[in-house]
Amino acid sequence: MRKDAIYLVDSDVFITAKNLYYAFGLCPGFWKSVLHHHRTGRIFSVDRVRGELLAGTETEDLVRWVKEEVPREFFLPVDAEAVVSAYTEIMMWVQRHARYFDHAKAKFATGADGWLVACARVQGAAVVTNEREAPESRREIKLPDVCDEFGVEHPNVFEMLQALNVQFDWTEGR
Q: Among 67-71, 136-140, 170-174, which is the least confidently predicted range?
């Protein structure tokens, strides 16, 4: 991972973080660090991920965070010609890949994953995901497998946080 890498974060990172190890009340530093590193030009996502994150209820912490604290510029638009061209290439690869079942191809086509890889490829960025490679999978198209096919790095959230030198410190309870 380059020291100056730009990271595009998948929705699963945010959803898993809020549900498990970085819940808003447990580790607010995670959410603050994401916004800090966005302001320094290192962490972004794509507008399709924003849509996935806003699919929750209005009262969920994650939905409120996206609406109230995350600047719109955090979510990069994917309508640039170069991104659309890269996305088309990715979708052609997915559709022509005989290994995947049709329902896996259809599910992939409706999600943000292909857009993340396309944008990362164009921007020279890495895609941050919790998913693991599954090159023999037929039922699901895994984001790391698509990244590998198109030369896009795919660190997990902990690798990204380490590369950004993020540290969370304990504070005595109130």
A: 170-174
- Other C-beta atoms closer than 10 Å to the C-beta of 159 total 15
How far apart (Å, rounded) are the C-alpha atoms in residues 45 and 145?
19
| pTM confidence score | 0.93
Structural domains of the chain ordered from first start: 7-163 (3.40.50.1010)
- Is the model's pLDDT at 2 over the cut of 80? no
What tokens appear for 3 in the block? 């020291």
Full strand arrangement of the beta sheet holding 7-9:
75-76, 43-46, 7-9, 126-128
- The kind and range of the H/E element at 45 are strand 43-46
Alpha carbon of residue 28 to chain centroid: 19
3-class DSSP assignment, residue 114: helix
Task: Report yes or no: 84 and 115 within 8 Å, Cβ to Cβ.
Answer: no
Two tokens at 48?
């399709």
Quote the CA–CA distance of 49 and 111 in Å, as a whole number: 8
Whether 76 contacts 44, CB under 8 Å: yes
